[in-house]
Amino acid sequence: MHITINRLKHIFIAGIQKFVNVITPGAVLSAFLGIVLFVILTTVWLMYKSVELPEPNIYEIVPGATSREIAYDLARKHIIRFPRIFNLYLSLRNLDRELQAGRYEFPETRMSLREIAKFLTSGAKAKEVEFTVPEGYTNKQIAVLLEMKGLVPKGVFSLNLEGYLFPDTYRVYENATGGQIIDTMRRNFEKKVSVPLLPEIEKSGRTLLEVVIMGSLLEREVQTEADMKKVADILWRRMDSGWALEVDSTLKYEIGGKSPSLTYDELQIDSPYNTYKYKGLPPTPIGNPGLKAITAAIYPETNDYWFYLSKPGGETVFAKTLQEQNLNKVRYLRGN
């Protein structure tokens, strides 16, 4: 039997009309109320359903953000799944104006939309710890500092990246891991050294590693920025001329020595950090240099000195010849 398209249309329309004719107003109302009830129950279920929160369990509300912006930002970061429901809950409970800018540390690893909304409007912001890393600090010293601040046990703080953990004042969450703190300090190094100064380092003919190593030596060898620039010129010239650098601080870094001068036996130690035995720079930085030392390594002050020493009070004395240097040792370091 052949049925045309028009015939099918007539059959379909007639079926719809017959279905509508049998539906009573009461049935329509019941269906509508059923749909509304289903939506309400689903919304309530989603509000109370706990979900796993992603790591790290920290969220920051930026100043001026609206509740809608916060809801969709939470969704983008996979903290919530239904931003419209979250925003609706805030509006219905008049909580949308209670959201306060700041960093929040979620107290649980699993939370519901309702719990997240209540927490972010409670004002219970994450606690932060402030610490300052002095210029020239080694990673071991940083590890001790962080342990004293109650942040990370020194035994679990990574000692890698010596030289690239930028000395500065930091604020971190009290539950921050060693890895998170290292990332923060490393990014600060990139922001203040790698990005702005790399073109200048390349112009100088040195590598970033060489400059960081030299900067770490300057931090240990002398105190003032002016002296750093002079000593940088001396050490670069020694290295370029094939001399041994003869820097005490490199060997002290290796052996952990704290005495003002090295002993004869210590000077015989076979180590790449013994710059009396091995020419050139040590293999790694011996601390984390600050911006002044790094800048001095990039822009040394040209001079005709070849030697220097530090008096007990920290003042640097320069010499042009070995004979003059030996006289300075007798004059200033006798008995030390």
Can you walk me through this structure?
The chain is mainly alpha-helical. 50% of the residues lie in helices and 9% in strands. It contains 13 helices and eight strands. The protein has helices at 5-22, 25-48, 67-76, 83-92, 113-120, 139-148, 178-204, 208-221, 225-240, 248-255, 264-267, 291-298, 322-333; strands at residues 51-52, 58-61, 102-105, 110-111, 128-132, 169-173, 307-310, 316-319. The strands form four sheets. The protein has a two-stranded antiparallel ribbon. A two-stranded antiparallel sheet has the order 2-3. Strands 5-6 form a two-stranded antiparallel sheet. The longest helix is centred in the middle third of the chain and has 27 residues, at 178-204. It starts with a helix and ends with a helix.
Helices and strands in order:
Layout: H1 5-22, H2 25-48, E1 51-52, E2 58-61, H3 67-76, H4 83-92, E3 102-105, E4 110-111, H5 113-120, E5 128-132, H6 139-148, E6 169-173, H7 178-204, H8 208-221, H9 225-240, H10 248-255, H11 264-267, H12 291-298, E7 307-310, E8 316-319, H13 322-333
Antiparallel strand pairs: 1-4, 2-3, 5-6, 7-8
| Overall strand count | 8
Strand content: 5-15%
What's the order of the H and E elements? Answer: HHEEHHEEHEHEHHHHHHEEH
Structure annotation, total helices: 13
Radius of gyration, taken over Cα atoms and rounded to an integer in Å: 34 Å
Tell me, rounded to a whole number, the average pLDDT.
86
Tell me about the largest β-sheet: 2 strands, antiparallel
Helicity level: 40-55%
Widest β-sheet, arrangement of strands = 1-4
Straight-line N-to-C gap = 118 Å
The shape is: elongated
Structural class: mainly alpha
Point out poorly predicted stretches.
none
